[in-house]
């Protein structure tokens, strides 16, 4: 199914938010606020989400809107990749999540791997920076850039986190049911290319 409606809603939201951030004219501010409401109505029309939840999730930012950052760790062991079982959708993903303010990308991924899998890790290489819109993820209200960092385990043990209920390593040929809002099969296949070719250059799009 086409997701053009989502792209339009995101663009309207982004433009209206920029207008609310920089405009001083009271009438322009009213128009930008109305545009923001229209973006929420578009999302509501095409999803099962309640209006208030959409407003809280989708239209509550202030200032100039930029893509959000989602960071994922690629941790290999014996030819397999580390994955965690997500509570929220009962599917599997690479450990990771939103980048927290005040932490660097390297610090963020170390924290996420520890919290979601129990392992202590150290970042060793930036593998990819991808635009979510250019990959077959399930539709999302926000525009994301996804950062993939290869990490090595230096300690800890497999433990479930607050948001996870399973930790395991998987072969490329035997992946579990993926949480496609977080990672796609093609992205994980790309990460295995780095395992097979350590000299492979960083991917970006």
Task: Please provide a written account of the structure.
The protein has 205 residues and is an alpha+beta fold. The protein contains five helices and eight strands, in the order αααββββαβββαβ. It has helices at 4-22, 26-46, 51-58, 105-117, 185-196, and strands spanning 68-77, 80-86, 92-93, 96-98, 119-131, 144-156, 164-170, 203-204. Strands 1, 2, 3, 4, 5, 6, 7 and 8 form an eight-stranded mixed β-sheet that branches. The longest helix has 21 residues, at 26-46.
Offer a quick outline of the entry.
The chain has helices at 4-22, 26-46, 51-58, 105-117, 185-196, and strands at 68-77, 80-86, 92-93, 96-98, 119-131, 144-156, 164-170, 203-204. It has 205 residues and is α+β, with helices and mostly antiparallel strands.
Largest sheet: 8 strands, mixed
| Average pLDDT rating | 90
> Structural class of the helices, strands and pairings?
alpha+beta
Distance between the termini: 24 Å
Helix content: 25-40%
Enumerate the spans where pLDDT stays under 50 for 5 or more consecutive residues.
none
How are helices and strands ordered from N to C? HHHEEEEHEEEHE
How many E-type strands? 8
Cα-based radius of gyration, to the nearest Å: 19 Å
Give the overall form. Answer: elongated
Q: What is the count of DSSP helices, taking H or I runs of 4+ residues?
A: 5
User: Which strand-content bin applies to the residues?
Assistant: 25-35%
């Amino acid at each position: 199914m086409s997701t053009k409606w989502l792209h339009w809603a995101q663009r309207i939201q982004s433009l209206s938010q920029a207008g609310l951030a920089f405009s001083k004219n009271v009438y322009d501010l009213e128009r930008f606020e109305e545009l923001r409401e229209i973006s929420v109505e578009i999302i509501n029309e095409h999803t099962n989400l309640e209006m208030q939840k959409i407003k809280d999730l989708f239209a509550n930012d202030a200032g100039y809107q930029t893509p959000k950052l989602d960071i994922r760790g690629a941790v290999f062991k014996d030819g397999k990749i580390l994955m965690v079982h997500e509570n929220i959708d009962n599917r599997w993903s690479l450990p990771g999540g939103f980048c927290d303010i005040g932490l660097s990308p390297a610090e963020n991924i170390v924290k996420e791997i520890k919290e979601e899998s129990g392992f202590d890790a150290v970042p060793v290489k930036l593998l990819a920076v991808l635009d979510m819109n250019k990959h077959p993820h399930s539709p999302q209200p926000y525009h994301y850039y996804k950062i993939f960092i290869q990490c090595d385990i230096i300690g800890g043990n497999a433990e479930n986190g607050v948001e996870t209920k399973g930790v395991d390593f998987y072969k490329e040929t035997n992946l579990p049911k993926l949480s496609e809002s977080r990672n796609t099969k093609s992205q994980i296949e790309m990460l295995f290319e780095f395992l097979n070719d350590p000299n492979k250059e960083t991917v970006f799009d």
